[in-house]
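Please decode residue identities from the backbone states below.
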């Protein structure tokens, strides 16, 4: 049985494991990811479906890398002809820790040429179409053991295809999905982000509430794996609106639905007008309907009697040190006007988190762009 691996910054593994469990997949938590039993088709399906991971990988083999010869023997015995299209562009990424093979450039060069050699003469499934997406093969060597994995996305999964513009310090879309999961927001009560920037949390929330794919338009490397590629001729799309995302192997692409009126209010605000416009444009590209207003934090009002506030507040590290007042105002306004709303926010500074409310509890810690951050909660 082959395995898949869902990658996430350390500290958020349990969020990814919970999403997998919700999809009926039991995983084993490792630092920085969750490993699960799955074949190529299942890994491809999960890459197309999951909201929280940064990457979904297909582990294709593992074994000794004590020497160049040992790694060469491992690489040569893997079934490259059935794993990779013979004409696909290939990028090999190598990491090495506590191992004899520590010169990454040498390993990259030799693995690349061995894989290219091994897939020569493979059957070309559809001679008319050359693969368009680069295949990424990760070679991870730890304590002289190499694990080789293909990246099902090809590029990071936070790139959904709808956020083509962003304000200052945008949050990665998969991390926004993690925050919503930590807030236990499932789309059945109101959502409000009073520092919404480019709208990432709100748009992820609206797609979740509508049970829609998080992806608008992007390619996935796994769609060009021989084991999962649609049969010749099946790639032709039906006439009609553009698909929401490349469909997993064997499935017809779903047409992009018209923006759904959300069943619950999904609203946000920001005091920077161009950013508000960016959020609305991103929502349009994602095909969701959200309400975003141009408001100072001090002027916000709840859009419903109860609900959840989820926000990525400005951090000192990224936006200068003048942010303390934002935290005090955020806490005061929520206590005054959002009584009994659940509040979840992310910040890089524990002391600033306490300025929001004395009662805050930390739900998770992880690193974002190298900066340690905490996810905090309290009941307003
Ligand atoms: C870290 S960014 C949020 C980024 C957002 N999560 C995204 O993905 O684009 C913080 C946002 O808070 C807004 N902001 C800062 N101070 C504010 C205030 N006093 N009132 C309203 N918005 C404020 C900024 O304009 C900025 O867009």
């Amino acid at each position: 049985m082959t395995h898949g691996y869902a990658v996430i910054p350390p500290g958020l593994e349990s969020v990814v494991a919970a999403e997998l469990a919700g999809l009926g997949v039991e995983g084993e938590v490792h630092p920085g990811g969750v490993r699960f039993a799955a074949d190529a088709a299942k890994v491809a399906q999960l890459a197309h479906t999951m909201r929280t991971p940064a990457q979904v990988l297909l582990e294709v083999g593992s074994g000794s890398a004590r020497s160049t010869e040992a790694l060469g023997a491992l690489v040569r015995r893997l079934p490259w002809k059935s794993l990779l299209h013979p004409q696909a562009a290939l990028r090999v990424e190598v990491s090495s820790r506590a191992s004899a093979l520590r010169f990454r450039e040498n390993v990259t060069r030799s693995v690349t040429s061995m894989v290219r050699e091994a897939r020569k003469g493979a059957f070309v499934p559809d001679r008319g179409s050359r693969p368009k997406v680069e295949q990424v093969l990760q070679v991870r060597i730890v304590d002289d053991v190499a694990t080789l994995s293909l990246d099902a996305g090809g590029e990071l999964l936070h790139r959904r295809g709808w956020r083509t513009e962003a304000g200052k310090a945008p949050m990665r879309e998969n991390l926004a999905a993690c925050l919503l999961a930590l807030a236990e927001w499932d789309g059945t009560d109101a959502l409000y982000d009073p520092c919404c920037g480019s709208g990432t949390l709100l748009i992820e929330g609206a797609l979740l509430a509508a049970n829609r794919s998080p992806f608008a338009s992007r390619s996935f490397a796994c769609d060009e794996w021989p084991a999962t590629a649609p049969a010749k001729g099946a790639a032709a799309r039906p006439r009609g609106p553009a698909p929401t995302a490349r469909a997993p192997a064997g499935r017809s692409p779903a047409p992009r639905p018209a923006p759904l009126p959300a069943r619950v209010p999904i609203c946000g605000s920001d005091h920077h007008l161009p950013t508000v416009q960016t959020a609305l444009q991103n929502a349009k590209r994602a095909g969701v309907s959200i309400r975003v207003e141009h408001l100072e934090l001090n002027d916000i009002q709840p859009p419903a009697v109860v609900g959840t506030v989820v926000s990525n507040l400005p951090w000192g590290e990224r936006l200068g040190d003048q942010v303390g007042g934002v935290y005090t105002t955020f806490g005061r306004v929520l206590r005054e006007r959002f009584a009994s709303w659940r509040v979840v926010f992310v910040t890089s500074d524990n002391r600033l988190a306490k300025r929001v409310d004395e009662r805050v509890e930390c739900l998770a810690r992880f690193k974002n762009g190298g900066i340690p951050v905490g996810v905090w909660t309290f009941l307003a």
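Observation: The pocket of S-adenosylmethionine is lined by residues 166-171, 195, 197-198, 200-201, 270-272, 275, 296-297, 312, 314, 326 (CB under 6 Å).
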